[in-house]
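Consider the tokenized backbone below.
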């Protein structure tokens, strides 16, 4: 059975396949049809690119200057494993035919290394440090697609969505934070058609796994868990708890929804909560007997053991959460890192009053910072998330700094959906109101 992540099956002719892919690419761009040699992972990526209205002649954006790039590298967890990447892949990159690259979780290239002549060729397509290589910015490509699908993948020749990249082939694998399970970036090899072999894909996969093992064994770096415990609560309804014991057992502990709420609330109150206070945070004004809460805590104690203490209820060791990662980055005025760490709303399905309050505080702080800075790249990233896709004020902010028919059309459509009058040219003054999707004001909701 053919490996769907490999670009070429055994015995395939690279030149013939490249021609087939060019023709398939043209058919898709002109008529939207897919078939023939187009792999499912590539077809899905092309559809995402078309849905994002990415032009096939697009080049990656470069918007990190040297100072910001140096700062981003210094605080990124993959900086700790760059010596390993160079040890395992550096000799290949130095052979004059390949490039070693490492990007962060948003697809921003942090390192691009290899022979100077190959790097100069790659500069023509903006394959340079500081450039954005997510699918949304640069189309189908191995590091961007690996981040999008969460799996190692090869992208061969005209499988790339954007034509300036189609003379290259690349293989990339995502790298996960061993404490939270979240993707923190990707490692990539880029070169010619000869990279479309099982060996290159296996090599980047093995390198990514080695990096994850090194990160798990290394002392926590800046922003890492201070106690060795981590709690992932953003963009998921069931939290993942990482403790030294669960890592030794081979994976995090997945908590049920109510237990996720309890552990999060106790992490947010390190001094502990009495029974009545915890019940208010969980149930609000609902009539719930103390027995119900005690039963939940008894079941949770069976999972956590001595980590959960009582009188008051508290965690003996407070885990560092991905919520903390975002708030710490905002406190440091590092909006890009905060947005990169924001995997989605906090326990999005939870209606527990304490969780809802934390969720709103975090999202409001992040949005305010994005609107204040009005960085077009960050606004585009926010609008590409489920939390931001219908955020009218953010669309208006983006249109103000990067006007175009797409942003104007989206602003007009959202204003109409919220019962607001058209704005001149699709622009409007920022009123400070929170608009769009969940963010609609009460007046806008009543106007729908």
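A designed sequence for it:
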């Amino acid at each position: 059975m053919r490996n769907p992540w490999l670009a070429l099956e055994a015995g395939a002719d690279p030149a013939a396949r490249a021609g087939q892919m060019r023709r398939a690419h043209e058919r898709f761009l002109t008529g939207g049809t897919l078939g023939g040699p187009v792999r499912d992972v590539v077809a899905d990526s092309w559809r995402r690119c078309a849905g994002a209205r990415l032009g096939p002649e697009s080049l990656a954006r470069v918007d990190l200057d040297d100072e910001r790039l140096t700062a981003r590298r210094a605080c990124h967890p993959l900086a700790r494993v760059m010596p390993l990447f160079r040890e395992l892949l550096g000799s290949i990159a130095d052979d004059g035919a390949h490039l070693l690259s490492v990007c962060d979780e948003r697809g921003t290239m942090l390192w691009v290394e290899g022979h100077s002549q190959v790097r100069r060729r790659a500069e023509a397509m903006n394959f340079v440090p500081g450039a954005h290589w997510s699918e949304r910015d640069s189309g189908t490509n191995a590091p961007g697609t690996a981040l999008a699908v969460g799996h190692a993948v090869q992208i061969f020749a005209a499988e790339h969505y954007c034509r300036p990249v189609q003379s290259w082939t690349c293989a990339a694998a995502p790298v996960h934070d061993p404490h939270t399970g979240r993707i923190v970036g990707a490692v990539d090899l880029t070169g010619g058609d000869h990279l479309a072999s099982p060996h290159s894909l296996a090599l980047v996969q093995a390198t990514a796994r080695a990096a994850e093992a090194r990160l798990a064994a290394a002392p926590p770096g800046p922003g890492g868990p201070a106690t060795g415990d981590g709690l992932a609560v953003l963009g998921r309804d069931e939290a993942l708890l990482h403790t030294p014991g669960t890592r030794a057992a081979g994976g995090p502990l997945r908590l049920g929804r109510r237990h996720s709420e309890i552990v999060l609330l106790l992490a947010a109150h390190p001094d502990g909560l009495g029974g009545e206070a915890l019940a208010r945070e969980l149930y609000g004004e609902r009539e719930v007997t103390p027995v119900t809460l005690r039963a939940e805590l008894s079941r949770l104690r069976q999972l956590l053991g001595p980590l959960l203490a009582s009188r008051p209820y508290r965690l003996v060791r407070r885990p560092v959460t991905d919520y903390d990662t975002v708030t710490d980055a905002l406190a440091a005025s590092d909006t890009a890192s905060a947005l990169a760490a924001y995997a989605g709303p906090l326990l999005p399905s939870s209606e527990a009053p304490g969780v809802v309050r934390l969720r709103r505080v975090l999202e409001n702080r992040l949005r305010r910072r994005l609107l204040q800075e009005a960085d077009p790249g960050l606004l585009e990233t926010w609008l590409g998330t489920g939390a931001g896709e219908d955020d009218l004020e953010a669309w208006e902010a983006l249109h103000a700094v990067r006007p175009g028919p797409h942003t104007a059309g989206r602003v007009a459509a959202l204003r109409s959906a919220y019962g607001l009058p058209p704005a001149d040219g699709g622009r409007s003054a920022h009123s400070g109101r929170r608009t769009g999707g969940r963010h609609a004001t009460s007046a806008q909701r009543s106007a729908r």
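The chain has a mean pLDDT of 85.
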